[in-house]
Amino acid sequence: MFERLVVWFDSKKKISAWITVLAGAIGLMSAFYGISRSDLFIVNVVEFTGEIDSPPLSEEEILKLARVPLNTVNLLSLNLDPVRERIMEHPWVEKVQLTKRFPQTLQIRVDYREPVAVAQIKNGELYLIDARGVAFEKATVRFLARLPMLYGIPAEHYLKAVELIRSWNERSSGATVSLSQIEWNEETGFRVVAKISSKDGPTQRCLLDLGTQPQLPELNEQLDRVLKIADYLRDRKLTMRQIHADLGKKVVVKINPRS
Prior knowledge:
Helices cover 34% and strands 29% of the residues. The chain has helices at 2-35, 59-66, 80-88, 141-144, 158-171, 216-235, and strands at residues 45-49, 93-101, 105-112, 115-120, 126-130, 135-138, 149-151, 177-185, 189-196, 204-211, 240-245, 251-255. It folds into two domains: 39-112, Roll (Ubiquitin-like (UB roll)); 115-255, 3-Layer(aba) Sandwich (Rossmann fold). The longest helix is centred in the first third of the chain and has 34 residues, at 2-35. It contains six helices and twelve strands.
């Protein structure tokens, strides 16, 4: 008899506990339902973070892409995925971060692609290439003068060309040799065309053949040799017309006869 009473009391306690939990859950759901429809959390402010100088898109253009339903939707119930997808549709956009800031603010941060080269594709059109080797937008005139050109390079080799450009820029920072273009030949592979500037004379052309599978150490070695030769000739007031460095250690220099 006593054991039956103990079991009965234990069952009552468990039922009571479950009722308490259920009541609490229902209370939370009711509270969330009420808050998610409250005018206190209506989205009416959009903030932008991560500002950069001269971004490809203005804040007004981002707002048009995002199509955030201002003054109509509750911040809690706002689905961020469609907003993010609409902004990501623009070719310049690489990443979008959306943050809800209560009570009424949506924060937007847009990271843009970094153009590192201009490629001429098969139909002759010029496209910007980003740091991942992806062609993403037609190139305008303002990029043609400051970015290296890629000629005849298949799309599957864009990333390797970008790696060469990055290594070149790191190696020749502050030097008088600037990378002008990278060419591709099915038989000989990559060729880097650079320009060597001189205070006392015209700009000279520099050719570096890197083969079909170029390695960055080889590029660095060739660049070091070219810079040393350029310094040597400049010290002796000799003007170059062209330097040609191949995969080996040979470097051919054409001197201007008038120097």
